[in-house]
Amino acid sequence: MNIREKQEMKEKSDYSPYASFSMNSKGRVRPEMECDIRTCFQRDRDRILHSKSFRRLKDKTQVFMSPKGDHYRTRLTHTLEVSQTARTVARALDLNETLTEAIALGHDLGHTPFGHAGEYALNRLCSNGFKHYEQSIRVVEFLEKDGKGLNLTYEVKDGIRNHSTANMPHTLEGKIVRLSDKIAYINHDIDDAIRGKVLKEEDLPKEETDILGHSVRERINTMVRAIITPSEHTGDIIMEPEIHKAMRSLRRFMFENVYLNPVCKREDEKVYYIISALFEHYQSHIEELPEFCQKNIDYGTSLETAVCDYIAGMTDRYAIEKFREYYEPKFWMV
To answer: Which of 45, 99, 224, 304 is the most buried (most CB within 10 A)?
Structure first.
């Protein structure tokens, strides 16, 4: 028995019967030889962690674009906070922590530059619309590794695809990530909004903070416990109704006062201008697309989709650099 097989047997003995077991995975689209050391979900986690798309998250906006400070969240730090929260819940419930981590690390791989402002821009520009969770699946199935994709297991892709859709993930681990994503962004966005002087702690609705807590730490602790306690031995992931209601109310408050706040949204039209200009430029200058995108067009990908793939993968900084390269006048040098 090799190390992987020992780990698979350990899962069977240590995990809840409701957990997703590595040995019972529905597998990959392209079958592969199993690793003798790592389980299939460990391999998926490692593939995501070492992907180019994951590394680019460090320079993609979470809420505040180009903040003047080192402590604001980026899409990468958001992803890590989701992962840590989700792993805490999974471990407490004796579920598959590695599967949970893989889903969490991969859930935003398809996110655009400039956060949701970039996503809204591409959604307006693309004839078939644009959703970051759909793009995340496209990244892991097709765009990474020059068209080979990461060939992840069904369970990881299911959790990524359904982390913010009307559909629920088919695993408990995926359901944990879905809730952990909301817990993370509500609370760290409050923290960043306070840091950015968009709001103060006392501005938060008292009815909700009296239930959830009066600091980021207290609120995260309350929400995490509100998942663990009612979910034990149920075969489902649920949140205490009172806490869930307060969390949703606080989320609405954040949309009204932060995400749609004129101070935070004042750069959105600039984002649309940059994204739309790049979108138009590359559709008129196919030769300036990366070789990989041009090959995809040769193999049947539409020009619009190839352009969308390229722009969605950009970091904030790179998108601005390309915009300046194409549209900012250059001084004549003799």
So the answer is: 99
